[in-house]
Design brief:
Helix content is 65%, strand content 13%. It is α+β, with helices and mostly antiparallel strands. It has one domain: Outer membrane efflux proteins (OEP) (Up-down Bundle), CATH 1.20.1600.10. Strand 1 and strand 2 form a beta hairpin. Helix 1 crosses helix 5, helix 3 runs antiparallel to helix 4 and helix 4 packs antiparallel against helix 5.
């Protein structure tokens, strides 16, 4: 991660805090903003519209087709009748017709329409997957900012505590109650804390920029968690229930299952190449000869007009197509096998991801409990070391180590809590059950 100049970091952080302090946003508020801005989601939404239009195109193969035909032609005729002198004349032909057809039996067109509707459903599933991905990305960015704020706050508190310990060591050295080593150790630990503070400021700025880019607005300020923090429980507490749900409704599994159905439809459509097609055709038209019709009358410039109308049924039965149909069927059968293998792979991948997400949440909840206990133990250890330092049974470095341990534990505890909240959302995403409404319980945990 590039380290930004300190002056720029300070100015940017001050501006962000000033803007965010007045109107901090909840998770749901930022989700609503990102929902209308995120490019990945908008792309999936456009794909839904395109797929629906493609399905409507496929339906046109079952509906009547009507066309208007018109033409104009200029002809020249030379005639030779026995020993008479040849004759030559020119004449014009104007024609127009209204032609219509209605498919009566076209099985390929019916299957194509079914495929179009299935592809429109597939696009809807992809849109749902994009929405779930947006929820997780936004939540991760939201809590990344909160974790960076906590890290900066904790390192600031550590620096202040080390500064007090440094001042105490200097006073004790001046009166002869401590060695110069205590002052140098405290100074080294203070310098380290200041370096960590600079890195924390930079990390917070980068995390804010990432969240701003995700929601499409500058100065996003997430609300922190309300105190005391009570994390949601994991329900159901059974990994197999989550896996079964994932195998049933995860977008990746549903998409590959629908892709297999589409492949089977394509095979059925390819096999219809051997079947006949039946169309109902009708037409009405008129042909005009403004200069006369030489095939009816030899007299020039005798206007002629003919009107025709007809209706009938046309049968087209392909008998031989150079083995193109057989080879097309072989191709679609192979694609069916591929779609079936893709479905198996998706099910295995989703099952593994769901188990990993489940055990990750379980581990996270356990880590939170352990870190809460460690925080209390670290605080007690710090107080004991400070008292021991005052009475002379502990040295300066013991106090410094205890201070570092306490603030590191608090930072890890805050990070673990955020990881659990995001992990719960990832688990629901892995099972295919994640919905925007799942943000509401987390939103209620935020400070009002």
């Amino acid at each position: 991660m590039p380290l930004l100049p300190r002056r720029f970091r300070c100015l940017a952080l001050a501006a962000a805090l000033a803007a965010g302090g007045a109107q901090a946003q909840t998770l749901m508020q930022l989700y609503d903003t990102a929902h209308a801005y995120d490019a990945a989601y908008q792309s999936a939404l456009a794909q839904v519209q395109a797929s629906q239009a493609r399905a409507d195109q496929a339906r046109a193969g079952l509906l009547p087709q009507v066309a208007l035909q018109a033409g104009a032609q200029r002809n020249w005729l030379d005639t030779h009748l026995g020993s008479t002198s040849p004759g030559s004349r020119g004449y014009s032909v104007l024609n127009g017709a209204l032609v219509g057809s209605q498919p009566l039996y076209r099985p390929a067109n019916r299957i194509a329409w079914d495929q179009g509707r299935k592809q429109a459903e597939l696009a809807q599933v992809q849109l749902g997957g994009a929405e779930q991905d947006l929820i997780v990305r936004l939540s991760q960015g939201y809590f990344d900012v909160l974790a960076a704020e906590d890290a900066l706050r904790f390192v600031g508190a550590l620096k202040a505590a080390v500064a007090e310990q440094l001042a105490s060591a200097k006073r004790n050295f001046e009166v002869g109650n401590a060695t110069i080593t205590d002052s140098r150790e405290a100074q080294a630990r203070f310098d380290l804390a200041r370096a960590q503070e600079i890195a924390a400021e930079n990390d917070l700025l980068v995390k804010r920029l990432a969240l701003d880019q995700l929601v499409g607005q500058a100065g996003s300020q997430p609300r922190p968690l309300a105190q005391p923090i009570v994390l949601p429980v994991l329900r159901p507490d059974n990994v197999e229930a989550w896996v079964n749900q994932a195998l049933e409704q995860h977008p990746a599994v549903v998409q590959t299952r629908m892709a297999l159905e589409l492949a089977r439809m394509e095979t059925a459509k390819a096999r219809t190449g051997h079947l006949p097609t039946v169309d109902l055709q009708a037409s009405v038209g008129q042909t005009r000869y403004p200069d006369g019709n030489p095939s009816i009358s030899a007299a020039p410039y005798t206007r002629y007009r003919a009107t025709t109308a007809g209706i009938g049924v046309v049968l087209n039965w392909p008998l031989y197509a150079g083995h193109a149909i057989e080879n097309r069927v072989r191709e679609t059968l192979a694609l069916e096998d591929k779609a079936r293998a893709d479905l198996d792979n998706a099910q295995r991948t989703v099952s593994q991801a769901t188990r990993a997400a489940f055990f990750g949440v379980q581990s996270g909840l356990g880590q939170v409990k352990a870190l809460e206990a460690a925080e209390q133990s670290s605080l007690t250890a710090l107080q004991a070391n400070q008292l021991g330092y005052q009475v002379g049974v502990r040295i300066n470095i013991d106090v410094l180590n205890a201070q570092s341990q306490l603030y590191q534990t608090r930072r890890d505890l805050a990070r673990a809590r955020y990881d659990v909240l995001v992990g719960l959302l990832r688990l629901r995403q892995a099972s295919g059950a994640l919905q925007p409404a799942d943000l509401l319980p987390i939103n209620q945990l935020l400070a009002q």
